[in-house]
Amino acid sequence: MESTSYTTLKELFTTHGQGHIFDHYESLSPEGQSLLLDEARQIDPALTNRLYRDLVNSHAPAKSSEGGRGFLPIELEMVQDRSQLGEGEREIGNALIREGSVAVVVLAGGQGTRLGSDRPKGEYNIGLPSGKSIFQILTERYIKAQQLAGGAVQKCKLLIMTSELNHKQTIQFYEENHFFGAVKENVIFFMQSMIPLISSSNGKIIMEEPHKISIGPNGNGALFDAVQRYPEVKAVIESVKYVQVIGVDNVLNRLLDPLFIGFTHQNQLQASMKSCVKRDATEPVGAVMKRVQEDGSTMYDIVEYSEITKEDATAINPATGELKFNLGNILVFLIRADLLMKLCKNVETLNSLYHKAHKKVPFWDFEQNALIKPTAPNCWKFELFIHNFLPFCEPGSFGVLKVSREDEFGPVKNAEGVDSPQTARDLIFGQGQRWLSKAGATVAEGVKVELDVMLSYEGEGLEEKYAGKEIGEQGAATYIK
């Protein structure tokens, strides 16, 4: 709808009972008119009305994945530690990688605002000696995994989900950097949808200003919606066996991890996730568990820390001696492609993946010609979350692979303190030092070592080159490539 005219847009929105967004179009400045049209082109009024009808106006009960009679830990036999996997799983994974049977989706719709940047978050340079951006680190790891799998050419697809905020900038960044060595044709960019906020009183789209719709991205689960909206994305999903989904802000993400892929395939799982054991009972992260329904049945789900009682949060599992609910979500999933397609093809199922939230949001009152700040919730917001597919997994078909924080979870969310560029750098430096020491090198005290992503994926290939060697000057930062 990129070049859709005002007349066509007005007719479309009027047909769906949302033509009021253009009631004051003629009184806007040319710039205001252009801004309003740009926002309207991002909206599917038919979807908006359908969500309101099915999730709100039908007085639909809470989702089957909400409420219930409590929680249970996921089955012990469905949880495995990555360190326990071996060459069997690795070769299974590598074979699927060589075939190009695994696609990777990077959820990269956010900006680096909390990091002090107005650019796409993936462009952010976390301050390593190499000067690499998050996008470069992740893309090179995707390339390195394919090299290690023994493929003569890169066959796996890399799908990057952007938003209206950063789509053009992200594409430009990749083009300027020659796709960081990835095959250009294998990298596909797609935008997540924008969903307007809907008035609780009448189901109408809310305006933030006369020229601005109250609108926002439809959540990190936008992949579900994009499969139908983007033919090229759908074609990729239909051509592969598995889809790995990751967040952009974890610089230690192992894209196309053969052990993860092999673990999922060998156990014939519909889906799996990577998890880090929670630091303690109070760490405010979502955890995977089974939600007990009113009828006594259970379903897999990611449950936020705020949803469980203090008693549940601190409970000990007598079978393991650990916290009962300790499998933290680090936003790394592997989903079988046929399950993904099944969820996305059915409109009713897709609607059920959406969450509705009653929000208190300022709105423009055209009679008063002013922005009104309500004192109570006044609108509905609809969002998709990537983990919303879990309740659709059959019993015994969802697995959890426990991984080390030090090697696989380096989030960059805050400018300083916890989960900041500094903590991510320290994790990368610590990893480099461990890998070199294991290879027989002597690393000078206090040295900060960054090993190039293309040099080693998880510590392999270093012994022959660095065994017996001294690395770095005391206290200095060293980049090895």
UniProtKB/TrEMBL annotation:
<dbReference type="InterPro" id="IPR029044">
    <property type="entry name" value="Nucleotide-diphossugar_trans"/>
</dbReference>
<dbReference type="InterPro" id="IPR039741">
    <property type="entry name" value="UDP-sugar_pyrophosphorylase"/>
</dbReference>
<protein>
    <recommendedName>
        <fullName>UDP-N-acetylglucosamine diphosphorylase</fullName>
        <ecNumber>2.7.7.23</ecNumber>
    </recommendedName>
</protein>
<dbReference type="Pfam" id="PF01704">
    <property type="entry name" value="UDPGP"/>
</dbReference>
<dbReference type="InterPro" id="IPR002618">
    <property type="entry name" value="UDPGP_fam"/>
</dbReference>
<keyword id="KW-0808">Transferase</keyword>
<keyword id="KW-0548">Nucleotidyltransferase</keyword>
<comment type="similarity">
    <text>Belongs to the UDPGP type 1 family.</text>
</comment>
<dbReference type="GO" id="GO:0006048">
    <property type="term" value="P:UDP-N-acetylglucosamine biosynthetic process"/>
</dbReference>
<dbReference type="GO" id="GO:0003977">
    <property type="term" value="F:UDP-N-acetylglucosamine diphosphorylase activity"/>
</dbReference>
<comment type="pathway">
    <text>Nucleotide-sugar biosynthesis; UDP-N-acetyl-alpha-D-glucosamine biosynthesis; UDP-N-acetyl-alpha-D-glucosamine from N-acetyl-alpha-D-glucosamine 1-phosphate: step 1/1.</text>
</comment>
